[in-house]
Amino acid sequence: MPMQKDWKRLVRARMTKTGESYTTARMRLLEKRPAAKPPAKTASTPPSVDFAALAGMSDASVALKTGRSWKQWSEELDRRGAAALPHRETAKLLRSEYELPSWWAQTVTVGYERIRGRREKGQKVDGSFAVNKSKVFPVPLADLWLGFVRCDRWLDGAKLRMSKATKHKSMHMRWTDGSPVEAVFLAKGASKSQLALTHSRIPSRAEAAKLREFWSERLVKLSDLLR
Predict the structure, then answer these.
(1) Among 140, 156, 184, 223, which is least packed by CB within 10 angstroms?
(2) Spans in the chain with pLDDT lower than 50
(3) What is the pLDDT of residue 42?
């Protein structure tokens, strides 16, 4: 744990000095690190890399749907030179030569980029971050829709600007800084409904963390008002 904290301090120090993102600073420091000799493998030695944890999805799930574990995909994509390819080209390679459906091609590409340190968890292709929150409310869909529309009652003074809406299905909005917020509404029965909210194009991981906490608190407030 102390070594991990020291490493993070080095990365943040470089970020302050160069203005680079966390991912870029980390990659540059890794490039300067002297290659360490791998420890001798024994039956009791745990794997040095938790590929599934880095990718953000279990090995069982990805292997079931794609035929390879994260370690196998990482080795295969390294062999194909994907470490130097842009996101779109890697996904295209997976679709055309490995016949993965588009969703799984994107999922494997994102997981591979996280494993190789090219992308942080929650970070998008353009370098921005997104927050996803979902909550089930014990009210009919129409009541949830109406409660959400009356956002002045539960947003604690923050403002959302509507850009497009399909009644009882979805809303597309803009946050105070212009970043997009999308809400999707789903009926879960006669007296139960679900809200799935996505706030995209957040400029930093720190800001995403703040907004994740904010939206969690606001959805609890919305739930209280609907009771």
Answers:
(1) 156
(2) 1-2, 39, 42-46
(3) 41
Instruction: Convert the pLDDT of each residue in 182-209 to its tens digit.
Output: 999 999 988 999 999 999 999 888 898 9
Token pair listed for 164: 């497009």
Q: Which domains are delineated in the chain?
A: 59-119 (no CATH), 129-226 (3.30.530.20)
Contact between 119 and 141 (Cβ < 8 Å): no
175: β partners: none
Q: According to the model, what pLDDT value does residue 46 have?
A: 47
Q: What is the pLDDT of residue 122?
A: 67
Determine the Cα angle at 117 with ends 111 and 119, to 5°: 60
Residue 128's pLDDT is 79
Q: How far apart are CA 214 and CA 206, in angstroms?
A: 13
Q: Which segments within 15-174 are labelled E, that is strand? A: 129-137, 161-166, 170-174
Query: Of 118, 134, 137, which Cα lies nearest the Cα of 199?
Result: 134
User: Whole-angstrom Cα distance, residue 50 to residue 71?
Assistant: 9
CB contact burial 49-58 (16+ within 10 A = b; e otherwise) = eebbebbebe
Determine whether 185 is exposed, middle or buried from the number of CB atoms within 10 Å of its CB (0-12, 13-18, 19+).
buried
The two structure tokens encoding residue 21 = 């993102």
CA distance 156 to 214: 10
Closest CA to 82 of 55, 49, 56, 108: 108
Rounded distance between C-alpha atoms, residue 128 and residue 202, angstroms: 5
Q: Where are the alpha helices (DSSP H) in 120-170?
A: 141-149
